[in-house]
Every structure is written in structure tokens, then in C-alpha cells.
Amino acid sequence: MDYVIFFACAAAVLTGAFGVVLARNPVHSALWLLLTLVSVAVLFLQLEAALVAAIQIVVYASAIVVLFLFVITLLGVDQHESLAETRPFQRPAAIILGALLFVSILVLVHGNRWDTGAHSTRGALDPARTGNVTALAKSLFTDFIWAFEITAVLLVIAVVGGVVLARRSGQRAGAPAGEPPS
Amino acid sequence: MIAWVTPTYYLTLAAALFVIGAVGLLVRKNTLVMFMCIELMLNAANLTFVSYARALNDISGQVIVFFTLVVAAAEVAVGLAIIVAIFRRRQDVTADDIDILKG
Amino acid sequence: MDARDLLHLAWVITVLPAIGAVVLLLVGKRIGEPNAGWLATTLMGLSFVASVIAFFALHSLPADQRTDFARNISQGFTWIRVGGFQVEFRFYVDPLSSTMTLFITGVGTLIHLYSLGYMHGDPRYSRFFAYMNLFAASMLTLVLGSNFLLTFLGWEGVGLCSYLLISFWFERNAAAVAGKKAFVTNRVGDYGFMLAMFLIFQHVGTLSYGALNAAPHLSQTTVTAIALLLFLGAVGKSAQIPLHIWLPDAMEGPTPVSALIHAATMVTAGVFLVVRAHPYFTASDHAGTIVAWVGVITALFAATIAVVQNDIKRVLAYSTISQLGYMFLAAGVGAYSAAIFHMVTHAFFKALLFLGAGSVIHGLHDEQDMRKMGGLRKFMPITASTFIVAWLAIAGIFPFAGFWSKDEILTQAWIHNDYALWAVGVVAALLTAFYMTRQVYLVFYGKERWRDAHAVLGEEAPSEAAPVPEPHESPWPMLVPLGALAVLSIFGGLVNLPFENAEWNLLDRWLEPVVGVATSPDSFVQAFVLSLIALAVAGAGIFLGYRFYAEGLRADGTDPVVEDLGGFARVLEKAYYLDFALARFVSGPVTAFANFLSDTVDRRIIDGAVNGIGSLFRTGGTGLRKLQTGIVRNYALGIVLGAVLLMVYVATRVTF
Fold first, then answer.
1. C92 DSSP 8-state letter
2. φ, ψ dihedrals at C145, nearest 5°
3. How many Cβ pairs within 8 Å bridge chains B and C?
4. Is the Cβ pair B67, A151 closer than 8 Å?
5. Based on the structure, what is the number of domains in chain B?
6. pLDDT tens digit string along C95-145?
7. Tell me: the pLDDT tens digits for C131-170?
8. pLDDT tens for each residue of C432-458
């Protein structure tokens, strides 16, 4: 059963990925991306990472993809992009390098046993069946509290940065002062 | 009780996803599509982390993914803002035309 | 204060004229004529007094302590100390340097006095005396220096002053060119001196004169090389063949300069160097022979040229070259004290000759051509009589100074069994007497050709409004030195009469601690016969001169000897066309070689290499620049490439 789920989701993921890369229309790319993200979320579930899966759906699959679509339609760049390659050697080099990368990763993955079996001090994945969220929260708010707070700061910075970048230079006449354009 | 598939499969899938994202990044000229390819790569990394968290029975893998998601979100926000700003200048988001750094 | 303490203060001798030079260079213009001249002359006089004091101090020491290098050395300081190379700036007083300082400062003072009159009215009066004092200071450093490097310092200093003084009237192009020529020719010789110093340091370890006795312990090649290289320097400085070309042209300078520098002192520096470094020459089997032959050939060669010269100073210039040749002849056969003896007497009579010539030139209002002179005995009696004294001295007539010293040299050549050298020297002595007689008769006797010189040489006749001025005797500052030098030329021989049984050879014995015992003739008869031959030769020369020139030039104004020699005379006049050949050589092959070096070697090879490296980098940069496309995807490709390489590396390392 697991294998069925896995292979189905794997197929979906790869299809979505190829779709992103190969679609001419950026809107189509965004939709294929959505497929990939949701499939990955299912895989997360299968890997007993419930919270992460949920967050993946909520943040990635909806917020980020929607953001992409907003920008695409806002900018009106949904025209077809020419698929001709202007830089010579770029495409063949990319494919060759991609293949090489894939092969080397595979070699590393298959040729070694990375899971040494040593138990981490951080805490087990799902101790005493308290639930994934609890385990994650425990780890997050004790061992990783510092990173957590910093991440909050990071988000604020990102928001401010986004606002500043997207603002038109100088205030346009007639626009209400202090109100950032959407 | 979910019987698990060996991590190897997941890792292979993640590797493939990563490579596809990388190649896509190198080949596409539309900035927004390039961005999406970056998201693909990030997802591949996340998948790797989670499968190892499972394999090593360690929660920190998922914690890392958590943070990665947050950072990715922030990054997308800022990145899209940049693209918008560029578009305002040039009316175009073809990556190849933005070559001011050309030596 | 005992004698040694006085010797420790020997630096005073050098410092006095140095002070004069500095003061006159800085504020000379304000001091002005004539006080600048008196300042310079007084300082020279004081330096002479200091030299005399040093002489007596040295004399008061017993003979074997007079060359005690470690203790007879003045106060000073360590000039250079680099690694194993140390040079002290101290002055060394021994019989040789003391003798030199005596006549340098003595004759120098007289010439300074003479210049007071001669340079009267010159716009750069004080500058002249500044240079003269600077010259004196340099020359004294040269002779008093306690090591080769100090001597070299003085050597270069006198070269510089020679240049400055020769081209003193630099508005005349000929003077400027002569100054340059002197300096450059000197430089060629200095090259040899420097190489010798390098060799000495390499083999002996120090340049100090205290280490001269190490010479016999070195190999023959080393010693001969050092000796010949030092001699090369001497050849340049003392105007021997082939570096003699600068001295005749140096006559462009004021006459006191010619007298001091190019007769009495600077040109003798070469002889001094050979005598000072004599251990190297005696240790070498062949260096001495080469020195003697170069000297005697130069003596003959210059004497032949002097016979047909018409400029009063040029005759004396070639005469100087010739007499210096005699000194080198003596040094070459090992008769060092004879060389010094001749140096001293030559200083007296040659300076007298130059100063007398200057007096004549001054009296005739800057006329230097002997063909336009004549009969000046009546108008300039003192000049004439002193000049005649010098003439007899240089010709070698008993009992004047020149007889004793020149005879000594020829005798020494004979008793060292160098008969060929002796014979050439005798021929040169004959010619010396001849051309000097010619000069005396042309200038002071016979028809007064200066009255109608214009007619003789084809210039326009003087009108009533501008009659030919009569020559006048010179003022007293010019006459006093003439008189003093005349006295010295008469009695100078007493310094070293060759009667050693009666211990009258004072100079020989004085210099013994430095140069060793002089060889004496086998018997009195031998010495007497040799002297008689020398005297006879001198007399013959004078007689021939009288025969040809008693009445001055011929009626048609031509020179008898020049006419008789015909074409050969022209060769002599042009000094065997040496200057001409040298000019052709320099402008031909030398210039071509220089052009080759400049164009091919310098421009193509060296610049090409340097520029080539530059353009290599530029081409490389231009090529590498193509990587910077500005396109993000290409950069991303680079990143991926790097990542792949890393992964491959890790994969291969880890799995295999």
C-alpha cells in the first residue's frame, strides 16, 4: 500500500517538476508547481511529518503559489516565452551537469549507510505516541527557541523589505500619504 | 501503522526533483519561472530532511524543514518584490536582458 | 704634546682648504674680490704651515717608526661598515704622504697668490678660488688617505675640480667641451682603479694601506691584475698613452689651473698611486715592465708632438705628458724615490713654466700663439729670466733641479739593465731640450713679431686709432711666485744629490721606510759617465734649438723645423691624428653599437618582454572577461558546475 502511495505521489511530483520547467506559459508553470507541492505534502504525511505537511499546504501550496499568480497577472507576463536558447552551450551544459549531479548524489546515497543508528539527543520522532505536533513543538520551543525568535525577526524584515522594494519611487500626486500601494 | 518505504526511494526522488529544478533554473529565461524552479529545489531539500528525520528517528529534521519553509516564504516575498521593481523599469522580466553586471 | 699627537691632528691639513671651499661657495660672491682670493690663499698657506709641522713631527721620530701605520694615523671616524667591509676616514702621515703634502700645499699657495693677479676682474672670481680650494682639499685627501677608498675619493674629487676649472669660462664652447673630455677620459681610467679595489678587497680583505705588505703573498695573476688595473687609473689621471688626449685640450682653462692641476699636482696623482701601491708592482713580474714602457713611449711620443706646436701652453701640456712618462719609467723599473724626486722638481719648474706662460699671455693681452710673440725679453725681464731658469731645469742642465732628477731616472734605468728604456729616455731628453729651447727663443728672443703679427698671419693692419699695444710686465702677485719657483728650480736638486756616501741623498733616505732602499750605481765612474751622457744630450738639444731658432721664425714667417719635416709635421701637429681617429671610432662603430643596443636589445627584446607580459595579461583578461556575461543563468551554471565538481570529488573519495 505504501508503495502505491509513494509511486503515485512520486509520479505526480516528477510530472509537476517537468511541467514547471517545460511549460511555455508562466501561469501553467505555476499550476504545475502547485501539483508538485501538494504531492510533496502527501509524501510528508507518509513520512510521519504531519505538521510540516500541513504547513507545506498552507504556506507553500496556497500562499506562495497564489503570490506567484498575483505577480504574473499583475505584471502581465503571461505571454509565451520563446524557447530558443540565446546562450550557446547553456542547454547542453545544463543537461550534462544535471545528469552528473544526479548520478553523484545517487552514488552517495546508495553507496553509503548514512543512518548510523546513533540516537540523537534532540528527541525522538514520535515518543510515546504523543503526536507529531507535540514533539515538534517541544523541540522547537526548547532547543530551537533562539532560531525561532530570529525567524520572527526575519519575517518582519522580509515584510518591510518587500514593501520598500515594491513602492514607487517618490509619492505620486494624489496618492494618500503613507499608504503603501498594494 | 504505516509500513515505511525505505528512505532510499525518497532520497532518489528528492535528488531527481532537485536536478530538475537546477536544470530548469539554468534553462528558462523568464524570471518568475526561474523562481519557481528554485522552489522546486527547496522542496527537494525539505523532502530529504524529512526522510532522514524519519530514518534517524530525530525530530530536528522536521524542525529544519519548518524553518526552511518560513525562510522560503520570506524569500519569495522579497524576491517577487524585486521582480516587480525590475519590471517597473524595464517592462520585461526576461533574465537575459538584465545584464548590467556584464564585464 | 709629542710628535704622535701632532700627527693625530693631520686632518687639519685637509680641512683648512675644505673650509675655504665651503665658505667661498656659500658666501663667496658677497666676500668678493679681492678678499675671497686672500682668504683662499691664506688658508692654503696655513695648510702649508700645517704640512711643515707634520713633516717635522714625523722627522722627529726615529726612522723605523715613521711608517708605523697603526700609530701614525690621524683622528677620524669609521666611514663605512658593511658586513666584512670597513673603511676608516683617517689620514696617514708617512714620509711619502708628507713629501706630497709639502709640495702640494707649497706650490699650491704660490699659485693661489699668482691667481690673485691673474684672475683680477673676472666676474666669477670667488667661485674660482672656491674651486681651487676644493681641489686642494681633494688632492690632500688623495695623498693623505689611509686606504684606497679615501684616495679614490680624493681622486674623483680632483677629477671633478679639474672639470669645473677647465670649463671655468664655460661661455667658450671649446672650454666646456674640453672639460667634458677630461672628465670622461678620466672616468675610463677610474674604471680600472675601481676594479683594482674590488680585487684588493676580494683577496686581501681590506682596502687599508696597512695591509699593503700582503701583496707578495698573493698569486702572480692577482698581483699583476691589481697592479695593471691601478696603472690604468694612473694612465687616465696622469695622461699617459692612450688616455692622454684630455690634457692638451685642458689648456682651455685659466693658466693657474694649468699650472696647479695639470702640471704640479693632479696629474702626479697617478705616479703617487703607483708608488703608494708599489708592493703590488714589485711583487708582480711583468707589471713594472709594462709601466716603464708605457711611460717611456709616452715620453718620446709627447716630445715629438711638442716640437711642432704653436700654442705656448700646448707645448707645455705635451711636455708635461712627456715628463710624467719619465716618472712612470722610474716607477716601472722600481726606482720609486727617483720618480718622486722628479715629481717634486717637475712641480717646481713646470709650474714656473706655466705661470710664466700665463704672465706672457697676460702681458700680450691674451695672445697665446708663439708665432705672434718674440723679443719679449726687453718688456718682461722678470718673466723672461724665471722662464729661462725653468727652461734650463727642464732641459736637464747642471746644476739646476731638473738635471739631478732626470739624470737619476736615466741612471736607474741603466743600472736595472733596461738599456732599451734608457736609450728611448735619452732620445726623449734630447727632444725635450730641443723643443723647450725652441719655445724660449720664439717667445723671448728675435724679432718682435707681435708688432706686425697681423701681416705675418694675414690679418688686417692696425690703424692709427688702434695701435698694437706694447706688452707689459705682470703685477707683483704674479711675479712673486715666479721668483719663488725659480729659486726652487735652481736649488731643488739639493734635496737628493746622488752622493750617498756623503749622505746627501736626503730624499732617498727619507723615503726609504716607505719604498725600500734605492739601487745605487755600481761605481762612481759609472754614475759619472751616465750623468755626462745625459748632460751632453741636453746640451745637444739646446744647441740644435739654438741653431734653428736663434732668430725666431724665418723671414717669411714659417717655422724652419715644420718646413723641413714637411708632411710629417702635420702628423705631429695633429698629435698623430689620435683625436681624429678616436672621434671617428666613437661616431662610427661605437655609435652603431649603441644604436644596436638601444633599438634592438633595449626596445625590442627588453621592452618587448616587459610589454609582452603586459599584453599577455591583457589578452588573458580580455578572454576571461567573456565569462562575465552579466546573465544570471550563466553564473548559476558556474555555481552548479562547482557543486557538481564537489559532489563528484566527495563521491569518489568516499566510496572508493
1. B
2. -55, 145
3. 33
4. yes
5. 1
6. 888 889 998 999 999 999 988 888 888 888 889 999 999 999 999 999 998
7. 999 999 999 999 998 899 999 999 999 999 999 999 998 8
8. 998 899 888 888 887 777 776 554 444
Tell me, yes or no, whether B97 lies in a domain.
Answer: no
Q: Show residues of chain B in contact with C640, CB under 8 Å.
A: 22, 26
Q: Name the residue range of residue B26's domain.
A: 7-92
Cell output for C195 = 676594479
**Long-range residue pairs from A95-100, CB within 8 A, at least 24 positions apart, any chain:** A95/B23, A97/B22, A97/B23, A97/B26, A97/C637, A97/C640, A97/C641, A97/C644, A98/B19, A98/B20, A98/B22, A98/B23, A98/C640, A99/B19, A100/C644, A100/C647, A100/C648
Looking only at the bridges linking them, the beta strands covering C77-82 and C85-89 are: antiparallel
Q: Name the residue type at position C94.
A: D
In-domain check, residue B85? yes
A100: nearest CB among C637, C648, C650: C648
The complex's ipTM works out to: 0.88
User: In C416-566, which ranges are continuous DSSP H helix?
Assistant: 419-444, 453-457, 476-491, 506-515, 524-549, 560-565
Check A97 against C651: CB less than 8 A apart.
Answer: no
Distance CA(C640)–CA(A87), nearest Å, equals: 16
Any domain includes B101 = no
pLDDT digits (tens, 9 = 90+) for C337-380: 889 889 988 988 898 999 989 888 888 877 788 877 878 888 88
Q: Which of C498, C307, C304, C491 is nearest to C414 (CA)?
A: C498
The CATH number covering residue B41 comes to 1.10.287.3510
How far is C473 from C479, CA to CA, in rounded Å? 9
The residue type at A141:
F
CA gap C40, C46 in Å, rounded: 10
The C-alpha atoms of residue C221 and residue C493 are separated, in whole angstroms, by 39
Place of cell 714637411: C566
What grid cell was written down for C202? 676580494
Residue C81 gets which letter from DSSP? Answer: E
Chains touching A (3+ CB pairs < 8 Å): B, C
C window 630-649, beta carbon within 8 A of A: 631, 633-634, 637, 640-641, 643-644, 647-648
Confidence at residue A67, expressed as pLDDT on a 0 to 100 scale? 92
Is residue B47 in some structural domain?
yes
Across the interface, whether the CB atoms of C654 and A97 are under 8 A apart is answered no
Contact status, residue C176 vs residue C164, Cβ threshold 8 Å? no
